[in-house]
Amino acid sequence: MVEELLGAAVAAGAAGLVYLAAAARVVKQYERGVILRLGRLRGTVRPPGFTLIVPAVDRLHKVNMQIVTMPVPAQEGITRDNVTVRVDAVVYFKVVDAAAAIINVEDYRFAVSQMAQTSLRSIIGKSDLDDLLSNREKLNEGLELMIDSPAMGWGVQIDRVEIKDVSLPESMKRSMARQAEADRERRARVINADAELQASKKLAEAAHQMADAPSALQLRLLQTVMAVAAEKNSTLVLPIPVELLRFLERGAAQPPQDPAAEQAGEQTAGRQTAVEQAAVQQTAVRPATEQAAVDPFSEHVAVEESTADTDGRPERK
Question: Which of 34, 132, 136, 308 would you label with 17, given CA atoms 20 to 30 Å apart?
């Protein structure tokens, strides 16, 4: 009797262990469990942790609640300005309602993928090439709205959509390269012309300034010579212009600051003037004297010429 009881207890324990092993389930932290009992949704969604189900009656479906990164295959389409392009994108989404993701759609991943491809084709047909290349943020927002609207009924929330790459035909790439090169050349010419205009205005101002002060031209010449001589060890043959000599003469002829020196300079200048006048008179009289020495019959003419030159009445010998 005791042996029968022990045998029954062992059998019941073994059956309990088998049942427990068949009914025990573990739901991970990033998952949620949906129970279908005989094909019908049973109770609420099971939270993460240890849970039990009825073996052979309940079915536990685990739904991943993490953000899923799904690449969208490249789609070929024609833009609004009749350019053939290939565009691929990336969709980031997550499940927010595990029961709806199991009940409302057969395979929510496949559904989101197909919806992303059709929406991407639609965006390509509605956009221009310039928008696809430079205004992607606006296109990403429009693509996200197009995918998110039907996905809400599937218990899926679209987190973000990004256009990854836009492939252009080779002929279009060459045309765009020529256009960009022409635009850069045009801007370079405009900048060059503007620089020439500004430089001509500055040079005109400098020319007027140098015309008012001729010494500035000589200083500029000396600066140019110094700049050329500093670059290489070479010998420069520079003729001295007349303007430089005049500039030096004007600098030497300036009156001194000392009154005594100024008076002495005036006296010296007076003596130089008297000497110069005597030299002029001697030079005027000398040709007549030389002519009289050569021709004695022209003495009367020489004396008259000297008289006319000196405006006096000398006595004839």
Answer: 34
53 lies in the same domain as 127: no
In a domain, 239, yes or no: yes
Domain that holds residue 246: 209-254
CA distances from 100 to 51, 70, 156, 159, 170 (A): 21, 20, 8, 18, 46
Strands 40-41 and 31-37 turn out to be: antiparallel
Whether residues 113 and 158 share a domain: the answer is yes
- 10-residue mean pLDDT series, the chain (317 residues): 76 81 86 88 86 85 91 89 89 91 90 92 88 86 88 90 87 86 93 92 85 76 75 66 66 57 52 51 44 42 41 43
pTM: 0.55
CB burial of 178-195 (b: ≥16 within 10 Å; e: otherwise) equals eeeeeeeeeeeeeeeeee
Round to whole Å and give the CA distance between 272 and 251.
19
For residues 86 and 168, state if they share a domain. yes
Q: Determine, yes or no, domain membership for 244.
A: yes
